[in-house]
Structures are given as C-alpha cells and as structure tokens.
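Bump. Still looking for Extracellular solute-binding protein structure tokens.
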Amino acid sequence: MPASIDDKKRRSNMLKLRRINMRSKWVRIISMALVGTMLLTGCGAAGGDKKEDSKDEKREVSDNLNKEGLPILKEKETFTIAVPQKSTLKSAAEKECVKAAEEATNVHIEWVEIPASGWKEKINIMFSTDSLPDAIIGAVDMAKNYEQLAELDEMLKEYAPNTTAFFESRDDYPTALYSPDGKVHTLPTGDEAIQNIIDSQLWINQKWLDNLGLQMPTTIDEFKEVLIAFRDKDPNGNGKADEIPFTFRDAWGWGGTIENLFGPFGVLETASHVFTKDGKVTFSAAEQGYYDALEWMNGLYKEGLFDKEAFTLSGDQYASRGAAGDNLGVVAGYRANEAGVVNETDYRAVPVLKGKDGTQMIGTNNVTRTGGFVISKTCKNPEALVRWYDYINSSLELALDWGRGAEDVTWRILEQDGEQIPQFITMDETTLKENGGYQSKAEYRNAESFSGDTPSLWKYEYAQKVITDENCPPDYKLEAVNDQMQYGVMELPSGTATLENSERRTILLADIDNYLKKFIADSVINGIDEGKWEEHQKTLKSLKVEEYTKLCQEFVDSLETDK
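Sorry for the wait, here they are.
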C-alpha cells in the first residue's frame, strides 16, 4: 500500500529538514599481538610514528588498482575491516552480500568483528597503540582520532563518482563530515531513516479515547482534560480505578521521556540541554518557558495524572509497566511498546501540542550521518577501499542487500514510472523458516546483513520512496514523524568539534546532567516557585552554563564557517 503522505508533503518536509541541517551543521580480539598479526596480513601494517603518519606526503597509487569499472583490483588483495558484531549465528564473511562484493571487486575483507559491549574500549586501544585495521565501520571519536585517518577529499573526487554525485545533491554533505582540520576523514554509513528524526513520542490509547468519545488532544489544555478523563471515567471498562493516565521514565534521553512537553512553552529539553534556532544556541533550563513547563507539569502531577513512580523507574521496570493489561493511557517512547503495553496497536502518536499562545515545537535529530566508515593512514591502498565504499553505495539494491538481507525476503524493488521503488515485505513464520529458520525479522536481518552497522548508507531519498506490501501493519511512528517534523527544532547540528571544544563540553555537561535530572524531578513532584527558580539560576551559573553555551555556539559557528 502507498505510504501515508504524498510526495509533495515529503519533499517539503525534507527541504525543511535540510534547511535546519544547514543552519545549525571494527575474529574477537584475544590479545593485541593477535591484532598486530592480523593487520600485517592485510595492506595496513601496524605501527609507525604518529608525526610521520600525519604528514601530507605524495604517495603512489597501486598499479593493481583499476581507476574505474569492475573489478576494482586487477588481482585480489586482502584488507582488514573492524565492524560491530551483529549476530553470533552468521559471521560477516558468511553473508551473501560480502561474497558477492568480493566476486565483483576482487577486494577480500578479513573482518574483525567486535561485540557491541566492547566496541569503544577496543577501538580506543587500536588508536592508542597504532594497531589500526585498514578500515573501521562503526563509531569513532573523530575529534580525537582524525589525524590517524586518511584524508579522503581528493580520493573521492578521483575514485568515487557515486559518492561525489550524492554529496552534490545534498546541502548537508560533505560539511557534516568535516574534521577539525576541515578535511573529510570519514564517510556516511547507516540509516537516514525518517523514523529516527524524532526519538521520543507521546503515545495515547486510542481505544480509550473512543470508549469515552474523546477527540485526540491538540493543545496542552485538551491534553490535561483527556488525562483527567482517563483518571476518572474508567476508560478500560473494568470497574476499577486502576488506570495510569500518563507514564514515563525520565526527563530526556532515548525514549520514555517527557522532553517534548517543554515544546509548547517555547523551549526544548534535549541530551545537550540546548537547541539551535536560526543559528543561535539557547540553553533551555535558563529560560522562562522552562519554568512555565515545570509549573504546568507539577499541576498534572498534583492531580494524579502522572505516574507516581515516574523518575524512579529503571529501563527494565518501564519496559514492563504495561504488563498488567490495559491500564496505561499515555506512554512515552520511540514506540509505545517501550512501556511494555500489551496492546500496542491501540496507541497513536499525540500531535505536537500547542501552548496557550499557539507555540508548537518538537526536538528533531539530524537525518545527516556524521561518519561511520574510516580508512587508516597505514592502509597501503586506500583508493581501493574508497572505490569499494563507492561501489557498495552505487545502487538501491546494494543498500538493501547490505542493510536488510536478500531480495524477495524482506524487500523487493518495484519499477514505477521509470523509477525504482523499494517495497518492504512482511516476514511471517513461514518466511522465517524458509530463510534460515530465524525467530524474528530482527534476527534474520542481523544474521544476513549488517543492519545499521553497514558500509552502505540508507539514504533519506530511499526512505522517502518506501512502500509496504498489503500485509504490513501501518507504521504509526513514520506517520507521526512525517506530520510533526514541520515543527522540528534541532538540538545541535551534525559535525565534529575540535578536541578541546568537545572535551570541555563533555566535562561541563556531566555536572549539568546530574543537576538537571534532580531539579526536574523535584520541580515536577514538589513544585517550583520564584524562590526555587532564583536558586536554580544561581546553580546554573556555578555549573558554568554560560561557558557551556558559548562552547556550543562556537561549535555551531565553526560549521557555518566550514560551508
């Protein structure tokens, strides 16, 4: 069935998102000796003096490289690439997309798969000991490590026509990829999924609304009235006062949060506690709208409309909040199932609520990817890996192969008016049994593809065109984001700060985080008044919020300069 909104609206939303972006812009390791041995079998020998490596020297391109066409290499070469381990059921080397790419390119990869739990530690060891593989697919601290990575700007122009054309089609690339030296040392990978543009949503029990004859709330006053009805009018119809009108877990962060309740008051709560509008960074917790939002939320709490255990629930506790049955009215999360509701299909996303003056704001993420694929300076044939990356990102089919698995299992490509349209396919038990006997679609995807940790980029332009087969359930998250992003305001734009800026902000943010978590919970539960607000402002000053905000602004300004 066709997607839920028409192309004109999608493109309009994309243009808005681009304007926002422009405005604001790695066998498990047993020992390091084993790592060194593995790396020496590839093109990138370990070790070397950092200062020598950092020099820009004219280097000769390998005679084994074909500048264009396939195969990429005249004779097969081996490269080592570190990547997060996605599945214990099938190794990276066993995946069909890897085998097909090697056959087409003559690029043989020795994959170094690292469990997610140990990724950061092992990647840091690689950089600190100069024991880097030829490339890494996954999270890398670019501000700290870019000097050990190959500069890609000129190689992209010479060897990556598909990537270059993509960058030329987007306002946000390659600016978002620039390291503090103004060069590109990383390439975008992963998922520019529309659903990820807005993290936490408020999900309301539509069945309860229907049972009580209520309309979807659109303002903060209507939202409160609905919560009162959920409290008083037995919407689940069991004759018991067991309903929890509104439950959540925290003030901000990944899912289960109330961060979007600040929007109607003209501020946003975010992981960095700032938002960027028209190039200006604002620290939310110092603004009057923050006070007004907390005062309003305290009113909801005092009337028993908020879950009394909110702010104290662990992730696991929140995930089982709805296990008792149909007892939750409004929940917060990326999707409604984060609160463990047993009837997820009954929930719909609450629109961006209007404040008393009509204000509508919601926090958005950059769809832009700030990296994911890097090549070390120790690699002897980086041009081959640039061409390998460019090949994998040369078509919709390859993006689907590497990110979702085999054709006609979870996806197919349709031709409509001369255009390729990706269609996602429902996976039932029979399909899973016939394609490896996996227990779920997620298990299949992680085993048969690289899922979100892939060298391919699932582009926003692909996501815009997706349709689903007739058996796929509606994607209410997608519908919500498409409708809401017009009110989106970004936290901080995509890009890499200088190491000094990044480290100083991180130090200041740790204390700010600890304070604000307590302050928000206390204000919502116990109330806020002018005296508490005055003390709050003094505390913010002692936490050096002014310096922190200035650092955030300097980061934003540096991205504008890089354009």
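DSSP finds 21 helices and 18 strands in the chain.

Edit: fixed formatting.
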